[in-house]
Design goal:
By secondary structure, the protein is mostly helical. The chain has a domain at 18-56 and 65-100. It is built from 4 helices and no strands.
Length: 108
């Protein structure tokens, strides 16, 4: 699916048949997408925390805290990133996510 450059990827209507196709069940597909979105969110949070920590000061006094332009720019860069759920849907539809169904042991 091609999108124009000014189209927000989170606003694109998805064909539910395409979402359902890999797993055979729309709900299972949503679970896989949701789990991947959480993984992406954790990775992004760790990355931004690491970058912001480079500029952190040990000052606890609110009067001494000053605006740090580098931290603001890093935060703005991360705000412009696509949302984790959007990335997860794209990865799922492009068959870039490995997942497996754990079978119930009682059915053996």
């Amino acid at each position: 699916m091609s999108m124009s450059n000014n189209t927000n990827a989170s606003l694109v209507t998805r064909n539910m048949a395409d979402v359902m196709k890999p797993t055979g069940n729309v709900y299972q597909s949503i679970v896989v997408i949701g789990k991947r979105a959480r993984q992406i969110a954790v990775q992004q949070k760790e990355e931004i925390s690491g970058k912001l920590a480079e500029f952190a000061t040990g000052v606890d006094n609110l009067e001494e805290v000053h605006e740090n332009r580098e931290q603001i720019e890093i935060s703005r860069q991360f705000e412009r990133l696509p949302k984790p759920s959007t990335l997860a849907v794209e990865e799922f539809l492009e068959d870039k996510i490995y997942y497996r169904k754990v079978e119930d042991e009682n059915t053996l």
